[in-house]
Design a protein that fits this description.
heterodimer; A: alpha+beta; ten-stranded antiparallel β-sheet; two-stranded antiparallel ribbon; 12 strands; globular; B: 251 residues; alpha+beta; 3 helices; 12% helix
């Protein structure tokens, strides 16, 4: 009782009021298996089936340019050796939000911070209107600037390096990638994640995905350290409990 | 020396009473911002050191024991000296997070953000993360991690963070001073001015040190327009193969 009163006081005293629909704080994880393949895929050895999360175009397919589709197919064949996640790359956006690993959202009035368990990648998303960091530097996780549209956090992400993938299946992008993410609370423990993805060198048109995120409500749940390392033989290693 | 320590402590105490920190709505001091060690000396070597190739001279940041030397057990100082001759072993050089307490004084900025039940520390280097719950929850069991498992509580205006679960592979600085398995760290964060944050860490590690030691590093606030930038290290890493072998292992 005393403890819950104390916790209540802690919440009441923070800069960001609790219980509002703009409050995105918490530990979240994607439901479903979009991480396998954004376009959906039948179950295969070691991989659960995935349903397409591409909501536009309506056929659920990524609108690749013809040559780019060939590259995606080649990536798919080489996924067991070529997936950048295996060699400790930060996951990029939107892949970071879709992984079968939790991430935690922290919030202050002028910024939202997302910490992903996966290789402790993080993003500091300013919501105070300051412009993109435009010094000609590219980032694996992109450069994120946020704004509120009603109760939806809209994040504009630019300045990407081209090396990251979009999913385990080898769907990919180039360095003209531009992602617009939308985070919308849909319930006490649910958050809708939508992303518009464009890259005129790889895709014929912009396309959209939608994935529901669920809050981890287990008592004292916390992110664990997922450090990826390269051993003395040059082999990249992940802690075994995080492999999927 | 003792007198100097007393003087230092009394100056610290005076600063504490003279300065009223900015507070969040919950009444706790607001540590939010981008910070960086006021001097990079500790990143090079936590003990007093003369100038050498690539390393400027600097004073010890060890405030206890008096004398400023790490209280190594017999044989351990030789291991540190050997590390110093083999800096390719430095875990940070291999893209690992710094570990506590080294994570608080790298030659890179870090960001502190308070959010209700958490204090979050993001380091630019190695995109390192420390999530410090302050809600009184228990420590994880059987945990082992570069940055350990942290629990915070407030002692007046001082944030006290206890760290367990450190993996014992972390170094204390670039000079090869090191920690081992079973280390237990207690940190104290206290604002001493608008733009100055006092950081102290007491390390207890009976496998390596004959007694606990305390280091103290002041952090200075970076200007408001400074942002942390992404730090890539291990991605596509191809240089490690050209470094000398680690621990004498053959490739």
């Amino acid at each position: 009782m005393i403890r819950s009163v104390l916790i209540g006081m802690l919440f009441a005293g923070t800069a960001w009021p609790q219980g509002q629909s703009r409050d995105l704080r918490g530990i979240w994880e994607a439901t479903g298996t979009a991480y396998q393949n954004l376009e959906g895929a039948p179950a295969q050895r070691g991989q659960p089936a995935a349903k397409s999360v591409v909501v536009d175009p309506a056929n659920g397919r990524i609108p690749y340019r013809a040559d780019a589709r060939k590259s995606a197919d080649r990536n798919s064949k080489e996924r067991e050796t070529s997936d950048p996640l295996l060699s400790c790359f930060q996951p990029g956006v939107p892949r970071a939000a879709l992984l079968p690993e939790p991430f935690q959202i922290f919030q202050n009035p002028d910024r939202v911070v997302i910490v992903y368990q996966h290789v402790h990648a993080y993003r500091v998303i300013f919501t105070d209107g300051r412009p993109h960091y435009d010094e000609g530097i590219d980032f694996y996780m992109g450069d994120s600037r946020g704004r509120w549209e009603g109760d939806t956090l809209v994040v504009d992400v630019t300045n990407f390096k081209p090396e990251t993938w979009l999913d385990n299946a080898g769907n990919f992008h180039g360095n003209k990638l531009h992602v617009i993410e939308r985070y919308t609370r849909t319930g006490a423990d649910t958050l809708r994640y939508e992303a518009t993805i464009e890259d005129p060198e790889v895709f014929e048109r912009a396309w959209n995905i939608r994935v529901d995120l669920a809050r981890h409500t287990e008592p004292n749940f916390q992110l664990l350290e997922h450090e990826c390392e390269r051993d003395t033989k040059g082999v990249y290693r992940h802690p075994p409990q995080f492999l999927k | 020396m003792k007198l100097a320590m007393l003087l230092l402590l009394s100056i610290g105490a005076a600063t504490q009473s003279d300065f009223t920190p900015p507070r969040l709505a919950d009444g706790h001091p607001n540590f939010g911002g981008i910070w960086m060690a006021a001097s990079l000396s500790a990143a090079f070597n936590v003990e007093e050191h003369g100038a050498s190739y690539g390393t400027p001279a600097g004073p010890s940041v060890i405030v206890d024991p008096p004398g400023g030397k790490l209280p190594y057990l017999p044989g351990m100082r030789e291991r540190a000296a050997d590390n110093d001759q083999h800096r390719e072993r430095d875990p940070v050089g291999q893209c690992h997070m710094h570990g506590v307490p080294r994570v608080m004084f790298p030659p890179f900025p870090l960001e502190i953000l308070q959010d209700g039940n958490y204090v979050l520390i993001l380091t630019e280097t190695e995109h390192g993360v420390r999530i410090i719950p302050t809600d009184g929850r228990p420590f994880l069991k059987d945990y082992s991690a570069w940055n350990g498992d942290s629990r915070g509580h407030w002692d007046g205006d001082t944030l006290v963070v206890e760290v367990r679960g450190l993996n014992g592979r972390g170094w204390l600085d670039q000079a090869g001073n090191f920690m081992g398995a079973g280390a237990h760290v207690v940190e104290q964060f206290r604002l001493t001015g608008k733009d100055t944050l006092d950081y102290q860490a007491t390390v207890e590690n009976p496998a390596i040190f004959s007694r606990p030691f305390t280091l103290r590093v002041p952090l200075r606030r970076r200007p408001a327009d400074v942002e942390l930038l992404e730090y890539g290290c291990i991605e596509g890493e191809r240089d490690a193969a050209h470094l000398p072998p680690v621990n004498g292992e053959k490739k």
